[in-house]
Amino acid sequence: MSWFWSKSKEEPASPEGWNVLETLEQLDAVFLASNSRSQLLFKHSTRCPVSSHAWSHLKESTGLLMPAFDLHFLDLIQFREVSNQIELRTGVPHQSPQVICLKGGEATYNSSHHHIEAARIVGLVGSG
User: Does some domain include residue 32?
Assistant: First the structure.
C-alpha cells in the first residue's frame, strides 16, 4: 500500500444498472444470458487505487454502457472463486482491474488497468 492511498473499509456501492456478481450460479446465468445479449464484467480489487479509478469511470459511464450490455460488478477480493472461474471459462488471464465482454459464452473483448474506457468498449464491441 502506498503512502498516498489508504484502504477504505467501505464497499463500493453498486449503482443502478449494475448487478453484483457473488456466486457461481450468478456467473452461470451471465454466461447463459450472453447468448442473447452482450454482458460486461468488471473485476474490481478493493485494495487497488487504479481499480477504484476505473470503477469510478465505469459508474459515471453507466448510461453509455447500458444500451449495449448487461453490467456486472465483481469484488474479486471477496469472491475470488468467481474471479478464478471467469479466467477458466474465458481463457482471459486474470488482471485487476479488468473488463471482459461476453457474447455467446465467449470473451469478445477485454481490457485492464488504465485502458478501461467506456467509449472504447462500446465502440469496439458495439451494441448487441
Answer: yes
